[in-house]
Amino acid sequence: MDWSKTKSIFIIVFLILDIFLMSLFINKVSESNPETLSQVSFEEQLKTDKIDYPKNLSKESIKEAYISAKTKIFTEKEIEKLKNQDVNVVTDNTIHSTLEEPYSISEKFSPDELNVFMKNQVVGGEKYSFWKYNKDEQTIIYYQTYKDRQIFNNSNGKVILILNKENEIVSYKQTLLEDIEELSGEKKSLLTSLQALQVLWTNHKISTGSTIKTPELGYYTFLSREESQVLAPTWHFVVESGDKKEDLFIDAVEGQIFEVTKPEKETLE
Fold first, then answer.
1. Are strands 149-150 and 211-212 parallel, antiparallel or unpaired?
2. Nearest CA-CA partner of 151 in 50, 231, 52
3. Higher model confidence: residue 22 or residue 192?
């Protein structure tokens, strides 16, 4: 027997066997974790579409619960605590207050300027966080929060500060949610911010050449009744395309895109 030839045959056979086993292993990994390959492919598609997005988008899922909330009815005792204001109760759950002395903000406005104002001049003002300053409309909008996460686009948990031409707050409108609590049951696994972005892209909500700002996790109304509502964990994306800037909201549990109607969009702008 030619030992040299036999040795060569064994080497070739083992090499083929190694290649075969390696291919089985790669296929097994791909089948057990298809999201990995999907994400790589999606990120390449974003690059092809020249979509600029934060490269640190989360790829690991977290668990959160749905929450419920009730519409607050303001009491006379709460309203009496508001000093140096002329407060009118528009409805049981909405107040419109006019300040006796206008409150100035700087030309280069920063939300930090209003921390004291919100705490001292608004019922439960510390429960809200800044949303947007609209110079054209002369309004500053705040939305309520839960565990430091904003409750997006909610007309029942909102403060609208109204300014005059001298850049002074002269009045405000307020609504407030109360008895906010997590619904009983298991917490739900959420879409990662990267998966949520993929849903928006797949549904043609993001055009070629867009810029995606860092998304924020908060809550959005899922079910609404007259006096109460259920809110879902929700991803908020800001998408810029040319001169256009759009707020997009996607249910982080179900992957449903919340469609914002025209009147709602006007309050967000």
1. unpaired
2. 231
3. 192
CA dihedral 224, 137, 169, 215 (to 10 degrees): 50
Q: Which amino acid is at 186?
A: E
What 3-state class would DSSP assign to 194? helix
Dihedral sign, Cα of residue 47, residue 235, residue 195, residue 203: negative
Q: How far is CA 194 from CA 60, 180, 191, 214, 241, in A?
A: 9, 28, 8, 11, 19
Question: Furthest-apart CA pair in the chain: how many Å?
Answer: 109
In one-letter notation, the amino acid at residue 76 is: E
Asked if 264 and 257 count as a contact pair (C-beta separation under 8 A), the reply is: no
pLDDT classification of 12: cutoffs 50, 70, 90: low
Q: What is the pLDDT of residue 16?
A: 55
Is residue 85 scored above 80 in pLDDT? yes
- Residue 164 pLDDT more than 80? yes
Structure tokens at 110: 């920063």
221, 154 in Cβ contact below 8 A?
yes
Q: Distances in Å between the alpha carbon of 212 and those of 11, 115, 145, 207, 248? A: 53, 28, 23, 11, 11
The secondary structure of 216-231 as a DSSP string is EEEEEEEEE-SSEEEE
Do residues 254 and 262 lie in contact, with contact meaning Cβ atoms separated by under 8 Å? no
**Ramachandran area for residue 267 (φ above 0: left; ψ -120 to 50: alpha; else beta):** alpha
Helix (H, G, I), strand (E, B) or coil at 250: strand
pTM for the model stands at: 0.81
pLDDT tens digits for 22-52?
Answer: 544 444 444 444 444 455 688 889 999 999 9
